Amino acid sequence: MSVVDKIENKSNKPRFVPVASLEDAQAIRTVTFHPAGNLFAVGSNSKILRICEFPDVSNLSENCIVEDAKVVHRPEMELTCHDGTIRDLVFMQDTINRSSLLVSGGAGDCKIY
């Protein structure tokens, strides 16, 4: 059962409930979710790539309080390695090494983490 299935309005149409909030000084351009569902990455016009922890939604309710997204590793860790806007992100599974890669593309450059 998905998060959307758990919360429905009276007409049985799916309702979308915010579970995390992340703000940036400039426009957020891309978001991608890790295949395991525990992380998501956010890229913006400010050249900052944030890797955040996806919140626990096991006890989600329609009246839940939206919290700021938790940036992982250290509270203020931000990767500022792009020369311009971060436009594309994707997590790729590396089944041989049992790990995953984060590939990011921006205005004029591309990085693999």
From TrEMBL:
Protein name as it appears in the record: Uncharacterized protein
InterPro entries the record matches: WD40/YVTN_repeat-like_dom_sf, WD40_repeat_dom_sf, WD40_rpt, WDR47
Species whose genome carries this gene: Mytilus galloprovincialis
